[in-house]
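Handout, page 2. Input:
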Amino acid sequence: MTSPRAPRTSAPAPRLIATDLDGTLLRDDKTVSARTVAALAAAERAGIEVFFVTGRPARWMDVVSEHVHGHGLAICANGAAVVDLRAGGTFLEVRPLERPVALDVVRALREAAPGISFAVEQTTGIHYEPLYPPFYLDPGATIATAEKLLFEEAPGAAAPVLKLLAKHPELDPDEFLAVARKAAGHLAAFTRSSPTALIEISGPGVSKASTLARCCAERGITAEEVVAFGDMPNDIEMLSWAGRSYAMGNAHPDVIAAATDRTAANDEDGVAAVIERLVAEVAAAH
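Output:
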């Protein structure tokens, strides 16, 4: 088993908790347990801010919108957007994938991985190719080739592209990510969060970590004052950046290697268990 990285010494008291959602904070049935709801509220009462940091788009944040406290902000689309959940998911900051770059990525990946299909996630919704698995939560999606969807004069082209999604019907998920990075990693940021061969492509330098670092800097919070949680490769940069980080009991091996610690699986309230300990530490220090 891969060992977690060594924790940073003499860590200061936590000021911010950054947690992924699917496979981490949420149970497998996509709910937030009563224990987790109580832990999130206790953290805020203890003066520890909580940021939800997810690959989900803003329109899929209803599951946690009632549990956001204080600032009301969330980081969505793997760092491509900062949204205000108190204002219905209003976009406060967007770090887009520019369309010419996205088109170059599409061309490179079509050559490197025949059989690939694409979806385009915009601030206004998702659109996808005919062979891409349909998004049942988005009945208003346009279905066309990625080249048409990304064409500057296409309907809705004024809306920023948050990320490109690429699906392969046969490749192993980690192999697919490696192939994609080799073919076009110089153009954009590549990651994955699905157990299937689905990769997520953002603008250069865009990740959960880079956007979280910007949000923390605005608040005068250092990396050493952040505790992060995650389970999949799209969490690796965030877990590596935070002073303390926890890989879930159900985490990908590369995530375990990136984190300083481990906690129980998402279905066992692993995030809540750690938050309860952190709140107790803060209370004892006072």
